[in-house]
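Below is how a single chain appears once it has passed through the pipeline. First comes the sequence as given, then the structure the pipeline wrote out for it. We keep one example in the README because the format questions we get most often are answered faster by looking than by reading.
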Amino acid sequence: GLRQMLNNPNGSGDSLREWISSEDGAEFVQIVALCDGDAGEEVGLDVIATVQAVISNSHSSASTFERSVGYDTLIDAIQCARGAGPVSKPLFDALMSFVIDDDYGTGGESSGIALRNAKALQMLLTLIGNLGASDELKDELLKAFKQMLSASVTSKATADAAGVLDFCLQWYVDANRRQAVLEVIALCSSFSMSTKHVRQIFRLLQGDSISADDQLQLLRVLQHSAKRVGPSTFFDFTGPGCGIHVNKQLTLPVRNGYTVSMWFRIERFPEYGGPVPLFSLLSGAGNGILGELHANKLTLGIRGSTGTVDTASIDITVRENEWTFLTIVHLPVRMSQPLVRVFLDAGMVGQVKLRYPIKSTEAISYCRIASVTFDVSLENAHVKVSPFFGQLGSTHIFDDALSQPAIAMIHALGADYVGRFKSTESQTERILQAISVNAVEARDTREYLADHRLISISAITVAGRSTQSEVYDVNEYDLIGGAKVCVTNSVKDVVHCLGGVQVVLPIFSDILHAAETSKRRQIVCEGVHLLVALLDGSRLNQVTLTLCDGYALIANLLRENATTLLCPDLLPALDRLRRAGGIEHESASARIVVDLHLWSLADDATQKAHGEYLLSLATKHSDGLRFHLPTSDLIDALDFTPGASGTSRRRVLLDVLKQLVINAPNQIIEETAETIVHVIEECADEDTVGDVLRWLVNCMQPGEEVQPTLYQAFTKLGGPLLALSPLSRSSRRVRSFALLWLANLMPPLEASSKSSGGASHISAAFGAAAGALTATLGGKFTATA
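Resulting structure:
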């Protein structure tokens, strides 16, 4: 009877809940007391359903229940009533209904169903841990977790608060359902992972209880968690009535205009296509502006004493489950109708004329964010406004119409920003990297933003995590309805706290040494992908890995068993590692991909892929590659693959060398020429010398881009006389190319007629060449490739 009264559609249940919550909780005590003795499971189920009905959508009732009885007491009462047997299907359904605050039996497949009651979920996990459950119920629980965690951040936040990840990590050793458990672990870890969780996964990776395939999957779980995007702390709006109410009175100058900027994430738009509320700015007389959002447009409405008096819509695209930065700038143009400009991220997407919301004598006394103010849509009174289901990051209101550079700066600071926009704050370097401004412009823009900031709303402040307690007055705004603050932990930060990103390297080493040979390449690729995820966007991890010489440690780890570990798939992963390490650390991060000795140890397919990778870099970024890979090192690397078997490797390296020589400074070209001459004269491998001469002949053909600079460099070193050394070698192939190179080195005949010195030089060169030919060549030969 009590449940029927609470669920009465005429609304009488709300007043009953208020009455119960206004008392000292005696009614809750009486309800739970029904479980005393051996009352039986049926009584326990009724008690659970009744408690659920009383506290449903009533935060005051829920608080009264926790204060007067509590979930621990309810757990003890249920166990007392039903005994110590395993959790039954009826009890499981009742507890799941309690968790989702809905009928689990009929609502489990609905898109709106989510994990909502963290304490009830913790209660369910405790009972399963204490009493056990059948395999069927365990499978059903994992299936329900996967369904709801995949669809809702609210579910992930509830699961995080209830300790679902701890529960699943304990279950992971159960080989019968390891894959299903791993899927739930991946979903939970994509929201938040604590130090405890990361340590547990590290222990699993190093233990003997799981296979190489399981290790690969756990590495991917860590990768997925490290790639999480969005703020670490945010507001979560889970149902009707949620939002933020601003207690502060705001003044929107008629002369200057105003700006509203907000980070948000829509979890789902209404299925019928209706709008969701964004903000309401109203004066005491009811004048002001409201914003509502569809998936494909933003609608702004000006409200007067008679209702909505002007509306405007701008076409925009807002995707579900993606963080969006929206800025609305209202300019009070003096000579024409005021104008609204709308920005997504840092770019303007549209503008439209719209009346100014208030008079010069009015101030905003009613301000709400993401909360329904009026039930009907601004455009159509027959369409209902649905609650905002999603998340909210940092929100700012300014008493001026901001420019595009100022908006770009707010966007660059991100959804986690907590501060006053002062130029003395530490995020200046972050801004300069994201937008094209110099330090002076960044300082001036931030001071301008600081001067015109009316209010900033941040979940970090509400969560008590701000390091600048003076930034905001905590009484400036309140959470209303079921709005709550979600605080997450980043794997990047956790790994840094555990000692730095280098702590994963010994784990990789242990895994690789214990793994089967067939799995090692996969494991090393996944390990590098994990490092990329940990470094990307984390300056702390980037600096730490460089300071501990982590890239050299990675290279040594690969060099220990290069033929087994190096593979073509590893190259793009290492290239991403180079880029994720940060531009200021590229001299260290690029060492692995340009370590020619390391890659000479790989198999032919990998060497070919590495050569193509280097050639691509040389073609697109020759200056950068020349900095990290000097031409002398490239020429010296020809000795790493001697003989006929190394021909393809040497030729691709020489192709890379050609790209590096093009448009290189004269000093580099001269040093390159000196190194080439040394190889030609001193290298013992005839195949290597032949490939170098072949490359020289091709590069010094008339019309080649590098021919003039190479000709000048070799002329300074001796000109045609340089061909004498290779002409004296025993290999016919080398002598053939040496003769062709000799022809390339000869000065043009028209140049010799300008001076007698030039003629004597040619005569001496021909005389020396003729003597060498007589001594070394006995007959006619043909050049070979």
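Confidence is low (pLDDT under 50) at residues 465-472, 752-763, 774-784.

See the next section for the split statistics.
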